[in-house]
Design brief:
2 copies of one chain form a homodimer.
Chain A (H helix, E strand, L loop, with lengths): L1 E5 H14 L11 E6 L3 E7 L3 E8 L1 E3 L2 E6 H9 L5 E5 L6 E6 L2 E6 L17 E4 H11 L14 E7 L2 E7 L3 E7 L7 E6 H10 L4 E7 L2 E5 L3 E6 L18 E6 H12 L9 E7 L2 E8 L2 E8 L1 E3 L5 E6 H8 L5 E6 L6 E4 L6 E5 L6
Antiparallel strand pairs in A: 1-5, 1-7, 2-3, 2-6, 3-4, 4-17, 7-8, 8-9, 10-15, 11-12, 11-14, 12-13, 13-26, 15-16, 16-17, 18-22, 18-24, 19-20, 19-23, 20-21, 24-25, 25-26
Amino acid sequence: MKVQLPTSSLAAALSHVERIVPARSSNPGLNLVRIDLLGDALRFAGTNLDLDVETTVAADVRGDGALALPAQVFAQVVRALPGDVVDLAVEDGANELSISSGSYATRLQLVDPDAAQAPEFPDAFEGRLSARGLARALGSVRYAAAVAEYQAIFRGVKIEASDQGTRAVATDGFRLAYFDLDEASGLDGSWIVPAKSADEIVRLLDDGEVEIAVGDGRLSLRTDDVRVNVSLMDGSFPDYRRVIPSNFPITITLDADALRDVAQRVAVMADKTANNRVDLFVKDGVLQITAEGAYGRSQEAVEVQQEGSDAEMALAYNAKYLTDALQPLSGALRMRFSGPTTPSLLDDPEMPAYLAMVVPLRTG
Amino acid sequence: MKVQLPTSSLAAALSHVERIVPARSSNPGLNLVRIDLLGDALRFAGTNLDLDVETTVAADVRGDGALALPAQVFAQVVRALPGDVVDLAVEDGANELSISSGSYATRLQLVDPDAAQAPEFPDAFEGRLSARGLARALGSVRYAAAVAEYQAIFRGVKIEASDQGTRAVATDGFRLAYFDLDEASGLDGSWIVPAKSADEIVRLLDDGEVEIAVGDGRLSLRTDDVRVNVSLMDGSFPDYRRVIPSNFPITITLDADALRDVAQRVAVMADKTANNRVDLFVKDGVLQITAEGAYGRSQEAVEVQQEGSDAEMALAYNAKYLTDALQPLSGALRMRFSGPTTPSLLDDPEMPAYLAMVVPLRTG
């Protein structure tokens, strides 16, 4: 067989598979990329059991069949190719893939393609969303999912679909974020995907439409050149709506970027061994942020627009939770305080799709 | 006391001390920066026992005396300051340094300044060189010094000074590099500085002149705003001149950047567990570079200008040694091969100040 294609196309298609495939695995087929030769394209596939990824790229193909080789090694070689075009070839009966580009030539040993399972994808995709919309929804909330040491279900991102629209939501019990996409997918239900798989979905999606199918414990996505299966998480996601407060003695409005800068500066002094605590004090249209650690104390004040002007409130957050919550926001920021020990809400009144909730630290 | 100075000046002066001072140390004073208030300047000093660094920066100073505080914490706070100007203050009898810049204010706890030794520097500096020249000489050869696991003396960079000029030389026994600076320092002798200290000297030196003093087991340097003491290494540096070959059956000339690119690409396939070996074969004006590892083989050819045109030679190097040796070179590269198992020399005939020697791997 002989194949020719642009080096950059090969590198891009392969990188999506390389990223999810483990470099080493006790399961011998798992580190492989499987390459299927189609009439006018190459199809790359790999899996890490939680996630199957398949990418297709146009190529000048002579011959057919399938190849397999270690994904990381192939990707590393491709990244180093000097030419704009790459030629791939396998001589009849040979067990090596010849790769040449410009003056560079390499041969990589092939593996039996049956050692690399070809992932199976659904035939029909009932749902559809804009690819950018889904990526934005997942990408905006993913930070609020828990890291490894927490209860498993908190390490997922929940997708809620109805004819009203599509919501992505994540929480680790100490904070929460949701993003409402004003698009109905045509599906009805809710599914929890591992946060790490959500990261890959965000990276894979680009322009255009993404088609969606659900079944057999997995969520499948399809775009023009990518197909993905994501294993869904079992278990019941916390009833997060119950914990979002609705009564706020104090509401302030300020610039999101200004608060992010201030919080990052002040947090330099926060005690990393004591929840990275920063203290907030709102009074008379001024938000004062303070941190105190082993080496001293830092403080900064920001003018804010305050509703509930006769009230004041002192509360404390983990500085990282505060800056994470601000990440998807720029421009106007509304902070609504339900009380010194009950959750605070952060959002942009002009862009209500995104809402972040942060639970204050217990103080005193 | 009260001090005002540009934030960028403070950050730059402090960073030199921060970099050498250990973040944690069982020696309690060692993580500190000592700050002396001079009439119109601040002087920062720190040490890691191998190296003392002192930097001076102009400032508007009211008051006198000395302060000390943990270098890393102070530097981290200074990097986060929002304003162009920073105000430092200590209230009479207080034990805290107030730092304010723009809307940001912080207080850092001070330590008894006597806990941070003020390094002592020589009164007289007998030698002098251009700062850029010394930095270039040390920076060009430092890579050839050994890493931790080798014999101590190989982890140093030797400086040879005579009325003929100044040479920096480093070797780990498998490769060697020297750089001849065409400047006589006024000193006569040779000294070995730890390679890590050489790195710091390179970072500290800028424009202008550097004055040099040697004595009491240390080398001291002085510029307008920096003073440094470097502990010298004991022991006898290998007699490297003896091992530099002088008879070359084959000499080739090629473009240094082209060889660097080719070597890096081919080395992707080199076996990291077998000395990262790349094979070179010179014949008929062509240099062929090949690497072979667990996953396959890569090969690339470069046209070269060859003297000794009826000869051919096959030899192998550690790919990293080859690319390291090329680092200070650009433009014309001359490679002189003394034999398949004896050292090869790399230099630029137009810029003979720099010479690299690489010992081939044993093959077969």
